[in-house]
Amino acid sequence: MTAVPTATELEIRVAGPEDFAEIRRITIGAYLAAGHVTEGHPYLAVLGDVEQRARHAELWIAELGGRAVASVMITHPGRKYTEVALDGELEFRMLAVDPAAQGLGVGRRTVERILDHGRSLDGVEAVAITSGAWMAPAHRLYGSLGFVRVPERDWSFDGGPKDLWVFRHGLR
Q1: N or C, which end of the chain is more exposed by having fewer CB within 10 Å?
Q2: CA 33 → CA 28, 89, 100, 104, 116, distances in Å?
Q3: Domains and CATH numbers, the chain
Q4: d(CA 155, CA 130)
């Protein structure tokens, strides 16, 4: 019987071009598996354009036992992919864990690493994230790590109901 790697063996690092295919696979696969998008949805093109994201933000990849299992995009106020970060905030987006690695603590460890990274940056006092109102498992994770919902910053893509919720974690 082969031992399953534990999240303590997780390596999280800045991704390079050699990682883009795996980031694309993980991100699209996770969003489809969770039902956040369906085949043919226009957002899949955004999720899949890893090269474009890498030109405007920092991409991280997480590896467990040498296999890519998660990715996330880190951005700052004023950058192309920033949706909600205000001055003094770091934002992460498109946190995706390979469905085969879910439940191993990979998402939690990745967010903890983001929080540690934010603490190491001068002028960053908080980390912000947008999460769909329907993403209850993500909300539980963020809450367990100390994020609080900031409903006055909730928003929507189309001017309809504000179903994109903002969560914030103060670092100082």
Answers
A1: N
A2: 8, 30, 10, 17, 29
A3: 7-170 (3.40.630.30)
A4: 9
